[in-house]
């Protein structure tokens, strides 16, 4: 007997039988979800030995001259046309002139190729537009975002027939059609496969003729742009009880392009997402009949709706929500730093208090990290990758860190942040935080099930092949395939254990770093943690098998490690791509220490809770012989990051780029904040001179020759500007309370009656 046959029959076969019992088979639905998207850098991280040179070789995301002109022109014009307070509290919709402008400038057709009348922009341009518009108005940002991500446009380009593209894409590009995507049902949210919306194949009347088509009945909710949409991509479960198509009865999830004026469709009602009045609402369909050629992609795409859904959601996770989160995090950092410099208590700017510096530092770090991850992901997308696991990482971590920044900004602003009104530049963003957390895959689900759960199968170099072999209905063929891949996996695991040992026992000194890169110690630490992660993932899968699906807390922690490795790699790459700016080194130091601390927390959580104690002991021995390293940013580092936000500089501008700061508006709260910040920092040396002379009154300082007339005027302008920023809004009782207004009217009527009697 030759060795390969001996190995197969005596070694592989028992392992195959054991693995078949502990690993669940891959269902067709799971396979479609796994196949959606591609594997990119997530696959390198799962190997435990990523080639950092490959990461640095990825060209950074860039705008073309045409795209930059659009940013400088129509995007800035659109921002100047919207006022978030008026939109949400008075109009509760975008004005007609804004909708018309967005149609005219083709904001709804940014991703549609030029040959169909669209702008043909890159993913980077799409993201930058959403980011800047969202910094002016969440409502406007969502309205621009959805047609370019969750609308049918992207699906048409990927899956549509030539006839569908020729008809629909030009109409979507110029705004003649407003799209929406009908996915969520009352009893099917994160579990989209549980939808109860149905489409039954039957004959019906279409334009007066008997036609083979689909009878649809559906109830969708939370549909952005649903109330005003003219065409919807509708996901439903397709059935053919009479087998008219010859494919059996259950045909699977399918998507149709459904004009909303089709008889039986009801829409126009609105949800109110936390008083952020972008168009959102339910759609209903009762006995809606459409021909088969309404199926997106034609009959060949029957039953392929799940793959389409995964594609549509991946775009939102990769581009839309990270873009909005980047805008919000950057605005929180910029505004909070300015306010902390302007606002004084005990005659000291509040930003000089160490307790305030802690949230300021985290806001600065979050702004840098979210944008670093966003840019790296966009670069991958622009080069043809569609990394579904990394898109889940970006969705979860961008929105969660944005949430922390928003909370910190409210803490720093105190009463200024909680009083609603035109002067409040935080409230609209604060109210909208849970929306970003919830949509396009709730964050609890994304962290606990998707990042590592999908990544372990999709991104691991061997796991998917092993699972497919175990799921093969032909056991002999499955055993052959398993025998081929399992021993490669075993050899890989042994090598990775060796890497984890060398890097762990050397404290990361032996780990590789990219050639010529700055801060090589940080790259080596990532190499060390990548090897430890791959070792831990393999042992968790080995000891838990399919039960790891139910160990959501363990899965979440492993996903946290994977995410930190990706995001910290993005941070170091951004530092390199931007020319290794010396001023940014404190930000990198802070982020790397904070990130390593997050990784340490996740590793400890896994090792303390891994049921197989021998596996936890082995990981500790190989990868962490001296304990899991857990550095934290020093107090001095925290202060340095806070100071970045409290001083005008090119670094502050680079940290918070391309935000809308109120230009074009006569009155705008961010514009007022920026002006006050400029004046207060300009006046600071004058105030310091007065303090040194123990004079606190500007007029007295002028009399004594300590300051000049121009300097006194500057102090006065700075104080007036600061007073304007610190002020909050107050309204007449009758303006905000219908009850008070009613009482007031009744009192007037009584007064009028009394005067008549007299």
Beta-strand residue percentage: 5-15%
Radius of gyration: 29 Å
Shape: globular
Number of domains: 5
Please, what is the average pLDDT?
A: 92
- Helical/strand content category: alpha+beta
Helical content band: 55-70%
First-residue to last-residue Cα separation: 121 Å
* Helical stretch tally: 30
Could you tell me the number of beta strands? 9
Stretches where pLDDT is under 50 for at least 5 consecutive residues are none
Overview of this protein structure:
The structure is a single chain. This protein has 758 residues and is an alpha+beta fold. It has 5 domains: 65-149, Acyl-CoA dehydrogenase/oxidase, N-terminal domain (Butyryl-Coa Dehydrogenase, subunit A, domain 1), CATH 1.10.540.10; 179-303, Butyryl-CoA Dehydrogenase, subunit A, domain 2, CATH 2.40.110; 316-441, Up-down Bundle (Butyryl-CoA Dehydrogenase, subunit A, domain 3); 461-626, no CATH class; 669-726, no CATH class. The chain has 30 helices and 9 strands. Strands 1, 2, 3, 4, 5, 6 and 7 form a 7-stranded mixed β-sheet that branches. The radius of gyration is 29 Å and the shape is globular.
How do you describe this structure in short?
This protein is α+β, with helices and mostly antiparallel strands and 758 residues long. The protein is 60% helix and 9% strand.
Map the helices and strands:
Elements: H1 3-22, H2 28-35, H3 41-47, H4 52-57, H5 65-81, H6 84-91, H7 96-104, H8 123-136, H9 138-145, H10 152-159, H11 162-173, E1 179-182, E2 198-206, E3 209-224, E4 231-239, E5 250-259, E6 265-266, E7 280-291, H12 305-342, E8 344-345, E9 348-349, H13 354-382, H14 388-413, H15 415-418, H16 427-438, H17 443-458, H18 463-471, H19 475-505, H20 520-544, H21 552-577, H22 585-609, H23 613-623, H24 635-645, H25 650-655, H26 669-692, H27 698-703, H28 709-726, H29 733-736, H30 738-757
Parallel strand pairs: 1-4, 2-4
Antiparallel strand pairs: 2-3, 3-7, 4-5, 6-7, 8-9
